[in-house]
């Protein structure tokens, strides 16, 4: 079993359902969205692109936060995170996680799981405290629902684990469908 992700959250999620990867490989791919690419299509394309070579089962995923048709970045600067969180404040947005699995015989199965997340209106102090903590770094939409940003979330419809980074039910179903025991 290969997990094609350097995300510690994805590893924790897999362990939650009793799967321990034999190898973890961080794919090196260009994650730039294509012009006009819808968030759902982007999440699937990137998940499939992350399927690294290997002899066993390979699991890859990508999570995207979207405000309407706009793909929000994986925040790398405080300014990016602030822009994302200000946009999300007081409204609902969608989170899409594409998951792709390749079996040892080369068959590939994939799925995109969409969830709706609602944020309470953030005041300047909440925003500043969150940004100062740095938890937003590298996170889709500039937040980690499993961390301190949980205090901002007033609504979730869909897959909580999908919002974190790997929809567990769907991942387990894809694995079973490809013969993983």
TrEMBL record:
Any matching Pfam family: Maf
Annotated site, Important for substrate specificity, chain positions: 9, 63, 146
Signal peptide positions on this chain: none
Reaction(s) catalysed by this chain's protein: UTP + H2O = UMP + diphosphate + H(+); dTTP + H2O = dTMP + diphosphate + H(+)
Catalytic residues as annotated in Swiss-Prot or TrEMBL: 62 (proton acceptor)
Family: Belongs to the Maf family. YhdE subfamily.
Protein name in UniProt: dTTP/UTP pyrophosphatase
Organism, as annotated: Acidocella aquatica
Species classification: Bacteria, Pseudomonadati, Pseudomonadota, Alphaproteobacteria, Acetobacterales
């Amino acid at each position: 079993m290969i997990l094609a992700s350097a995300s510690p959250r994805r590893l924790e999620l897999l362990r939650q359902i009793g799967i321990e990867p034999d190898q973890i490989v961080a794919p090196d791919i260009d994650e730039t969205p294509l012009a006009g690419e819808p968030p759902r299509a982007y999440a699937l394309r990137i998940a499939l692109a992350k399927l690294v070579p290997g002899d066993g089962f390979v699991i890859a995923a990508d999570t995207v936060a979207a405000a309407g048709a706009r793909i929000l970045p994986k925040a790398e600067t405080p300014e990016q995170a602030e822009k994302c969180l200000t946009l999300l404040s007081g409204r609902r947005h969608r989170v899409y996680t594409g998951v792709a699995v390749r079996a040892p015989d080369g068959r590939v199965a994939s799925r995109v799981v969409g969830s709706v997340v609602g944020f309470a209106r953030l005041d300047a102090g909440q925003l500043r405290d969150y940004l100062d903590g740095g938890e937003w770094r590298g996170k889709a939409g500039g937040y980690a629902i499993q961390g301190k940003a949980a205090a901002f979330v007033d609504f979730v419809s869909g897959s909580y684990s999908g919002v974190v980074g790997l929809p567990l039910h769907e991942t387990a179903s894809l694995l079973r469908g490809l013969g993983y025991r």
